[in-house]
Write a structure and sequence with these properties.
CATH architecture: 3-Layer(aba) Sandwich
Helix content: 25-40%
Order of helices and strands: HEEEHHEEEHEHEEHEH
Number of domains: 1
Structural class: alpha/beta
Distance between the termini: 36 Å
Shape: globular
CATH topology: Rossmann fold
Number of strands: 10
Strand order of the largest sheet: 1-2-4-3-7-8-9-10
CATH class: Alpha Beta
Number of helices: 7
Oligomer: single chain
Radius of gyration: 16 Å
């Protein structure tokens, strides 16, 4: 009851955005007012919905009470769970096949469009937006945040993977990145965190990797601690 009370007291508004290719993304905007300086976007995993991550918002508000949060549903019904949603169709459990890679890049492109719409409508600077995602949401966040021509504040991938090798991009300047993964993750293997870190680290920009011992495919208090420290680091550098 206390968590619901905290969230409901905040400005809690459902927002919908029409993007390119007739894609529409809607979700809850939490704790927003015109004085907001930073926006935190959370993308859920495959087969889930925005409510799956909404419960994290009260925890983050303890550390960042002036932040706003946008927690959308993915635009497509999940092929394996019609009650849930997906950012793109997963063609194979081998995440790195070209079909998955290309679909993830396409999803990242419309997420960049979404961030632009949020920045314009909410009057929040593009470089003051943190993009975070869990599992498939983490995959999309990495591709979108790194490929975006305009730099965001930071990327946070939770139990995600980097499907994009950026071989069509000669020059990229990624924002600060945080990669968090459970050592016992059997859905998206922890090796994916190592792979993402090694690729992003080549750009020479700030990238942090945290492997949480005894954690499976999920989020715990240690995860939240790593996220809050990373966000504090980025905000203090501005």
């Amino acid at each position: 009851m206390k968590i619901k009370y905290v969230v409901n007291v905040m400005n809690y508004i459902n927002k919908s955005f029409s993007l390119s290719k007739n894609i529409s993304v809607s979700g809850n905007l939490i704790n927003y007012d015109r004085n907001t300086k930073f926006l935190f976007v959370l993308l859920h995993g495959w087969g889930a919905d925005g409510k799956d991550l909404e419960g994290l918002v009260p925890e983050f508000l303890k550390f960042f009470p002036s932040f706003s949060f946008f927690v959308p549903n993915a635009p497509f019904k999940c092929s394996a769970n019609p009650m849930g949603f997906q950012w793109f169709e997963i063609a194979s459990s081998d995440f790195h096949i070209n079909e998955n890679r290309n679909s993830c890049i396409e999803a990242g492109n419309y997420i960049v469009d979404l961030l632009g719409s949020l920045s314009e409508e909410l009057d929040i600077k593009f470089n003051a937006i943190f993009l975070s995602g869990f599992s498939q949401g983490g995959m999309v966040s990495l591709s979108a945040g790194i490929r975006s021509e305009k730099k965001i504040a930071g990327i946070i991938s939770l139990s995600g993977a980097l499907l994009d090798n950026f071989d069509d991009k000669s020059e990229l300047n990624p924002p600060p990145c945080l990669i968090v993964h459970g050592s016992e993750d059997s859905i998206v293997l922890p090796e994916e965190a190592e792979n993402a870190y090694s690729i992003i680290n080549k750009f020479g920009n700030y990238c942090e990797k945290q492997i949480i011992q005894n954690l499976g495919h999920g989020i715990n208090n240690v995860t939240i601690n790593h996220i809050t420290k990373f966000v504090e680091y980025v905000v203090n550098k501005k």
